[in-house]
Amino acid sequence: MNFRFLGTGNAGGVPLYGCECPACSRARLNKEHERHACSALIETECVRILLDAGLPNLGERFPAGTLDAVLLTHHHMDHVQGLFRVRWGRGNRLRVIGPEDLAGCDDLFKHPGILDFDTKAQPFQGFDLGDLRIMPLPLTHSRPTLGYCFEQNGQRIAYLTDTCGLPAETEAWLIEHPPNLLMLDCSYPPRSETPRNHNDLHMARRICDTLKPQHCYLTHIDHSFDTWLIGEPEALPDNMNIAHDGQALSI
Amino acid sequence: MNFRFLGTGNAGGVPLYGCECPACSRARLNKEHERHACSALIETECVRILLDAGLPNLGERFPAGTLDAVLLTHHHMDHVQGLFRVRWGRGNRLRVIGPEDLAGCDDLFKHPGILDFDTKAQPFQGFDLGDLRIMPLPLTHSRPTLGYCFEQNGQRIAYLTDTCGLPAETEAWLIEHPPNLLMLDCSYPPRSETPRNHNDLHMARRICDTLKPQHCYLTHIDHSFDTWLIGEPEALPDNMNIAHDGQALSI
């Protein structure tokens, strides 16, 4: 499995509009530190799947015929925005598989164009795309949200964002099926109060300590977390990394 | 007044995802023929206004403090999409003035962040921004939609998109206050049946013949219109031009 982080930012991204914090200033000087809409690509020799569709230039990055499906974690704007232009395209329909959510996002379900929303992912009902086994795992967020665990040849990558902690049944499933790589929402630096909708570093560490992946990559990063890390460069344990836009991994 | 077309495409843009027509193929070979979300910038020495906000990278193009206001024609996704990331910014609020439309777009009104939607533009109730006099003009579209006529030192630029024909009272106002430059929705080549929601070239010519601007620039172009024009390069009268992304004009 080849995995690539396309975007690792939260809804405001890095740099954040109007913000002069160290992380936002650094990203304006060096594009390598920019963070765009949280999304990823997972590929095998047989299949190529886009994980969330919040990047704006999807049609340019992935011309028609180069994606087998789009998997959505949920229907917040920063995870679906790129579909609004693509939907008016020509040719074969593009499968977009996500959780049941009647509201969807704006008029996306009303005017799907070439997007095929017929298949919904159901919690704990595994399915195959090409040679990948995919298990949808409920997450804890302000909208119906699913993480996904991808499995091939006994290797597993779990992609768990957006979430604040993990539902007990998702944690139990992942303890039974431990991922080699864990891609995890960690929007915020350690907070004194439990955050809403997204993990802070306390919560991400707790999840990581429970699931014990070989490597954990933190994503959906808020600018405040980047700034905190500039002051605490040694804060993360050895098996925990901050993901970056464009970062590629293989197992 | 300095006017710049930032985007001149309709919701699908050019090239359209998956489309191999002559216009879409040409745009893939040469970015100068691309058309992005219909929007523009109008500036004087005193004021800088963004006209519609459908481009995705607004924060990069217009860093905080470089725009005095955003004027929205309406709340369809391809005219507001760029606001979804900007809203989470820091610092001064950014005024976004548009027509009354309770639905807005997705959760933009529910979570405005730094966007200031307090001022609504009302049909035929002129207002000033800096040294520009601005008159909101009702248009005919599937959502509440306003065009705007900008006036400075007796010179006028009318920006009329999205629209299918013109309401009688808008036409009457523009006959009394003729624009020097008319920027006009013309999404489609001539059609045998009257189109819905957008002008075809028949309708755009009729409006242009009635209002008699010195120059008319067609915008909100569908790929099918570009392809038609490749085959009919002499089809437009002398005072009518096809706008291009990035095209700048001054009066």
Spell out the key features of this protein.
homodimer; 251 residues; alpha/beta; Metallo-beta-lactamase, Chain A; 8-stranded mixed beta sheet; 7-stranded mixed beta sheet; 15 strands
Structure description:
Two copies of one chain form a homodimer. With 251 residues, chain A is α/β, with parallel strands linked by helices. Chain A has a single domain (2-250), classed as 4-Layer Sandwich (Metallo-beta-lactamase, Chain A), CATH 3.60.15.10. Chain A has helices at 22-29, 58-61, 77-80, 83-86, 168-176, 201-211, 223-231, and strands at residues 2-7, 39-43, 48-51, 69-71, 94-99, 115-116, 120-121, 127-129, 132-138, 146-152, 155-160, 181-185, 215-219, 240-242, 248-250. In chain A, the strands form two sheets. In chain A, strands 1, 2, 3, 4, 5, 6, 7 and 15 form an eight-stranded mixed beta sheet that branches. In chain A, strands 8-9-10-11-12-13-14 form a seven-stranded mixed beta sheet, with helices on one face. In chain A, β3 (48-51), α2 (58-61) and β4 form a beta-alpha-beta unit.
CATH class of chain A: Alpha Beta
N-end to C-end Cα span of chain A: 6 Å
Number of distinct helices of chain A: 7
Roughly what percent helix of chain A?
A: 10-25%
According to CATH, what is the topology of chain A? Metallo-beta-lactamase, Chain A
Shape of chain A: globular
Please indicate the percent range of residues of chain A in DSSP E strands (runs of 2 or more): 25-35%
CATH superfamily of chain A: Ribonuclease Z/Hydroxyacylglutathione hydrolase-like
Radius of gyration of chain A: 17 Å
Task: Give, in order, the helices and strands of chain A.
Answer: EHEEHEHHEEEEEEEHEHEHEE
Largest β-sheet summary of chain A: 8 strands, mixed
CATH architecture of chain A: 4-Layer Sandwich
Number of strands of chain A: 15
Mean pLDDT over the full residue set of chain A: 97
